[in-house]
Amino acid sequence: xxxxxxxxxxxxxxxxxxxxxxxxxxxxxxxxxxxxxxxxxxxxxxxxxxxxxxxxxxxxxxxxxxxxxxxxxxxxxxxxxxxxxxxxxxxxxxxxxxxxxxxxxxxxxxxxxxxxxxxxxxxxxxxxxxxxxxxxxxxxxxxxxxxxxxxxxxxxxxxxxxxxxxxxxxxxxxxxxxxxxxxxxxxxxxxxxxxxxxxxxx
Length: 202
Fold this sequence. Notes:
Elements: H1 4-19, H2 22-28, E1 33-37, H3 47-57, E2 62-65, H4 70-83, E3 90-95, H5 97-111, E4 118-122, E5 136-141, E6 160-165, H6 185-199
Parallel strand pairs: 1-2, 1-3, 3-4, 4-5, 5-6
Helix pairs in contact: 4-5
Signal peptide: 1-27
Keywords: Signal
Organism: Peteryoungia desertarenae
């Protein structure tokens, strides 16, 4: 005769096995490479540190970096992309010169025919361009036509490009400027929503 204790013990084992299964563990750490690139001299762009911590709290692997040696950095990303699913998709985020760098790194990856799922740029000093291997680019800008301005698509670009004017219009945020744009909580929340959509997590 099978005892009640046997059933309770067996049920408990099943629940624990399900909780510790690879699929449930992996669900907390989605695949993908998320890099946040800080601007000049690595002393500004501290809002990216906060955003990086917010992403990590959600179980998303995210790395905050100073400006990198472009070719070597692109090779690192490309190697990870090729080696396993954990390296896909690629998401690049940057502020100021770091925002410029997101587009430059994407252009390097384009040479190897490697797609970039999402680029989020906070006030780049240049205008891109956004290369054709980028699927979706969101550019938050606070300036005019000369600097901290809209980015332009490259001739081969066929993805989705959103230039978001934070100074005027329906997306304007009072008090936002070049030296605090990457610290704004509303923009962090919007960026996180876009990242979660790309990574297909709730």
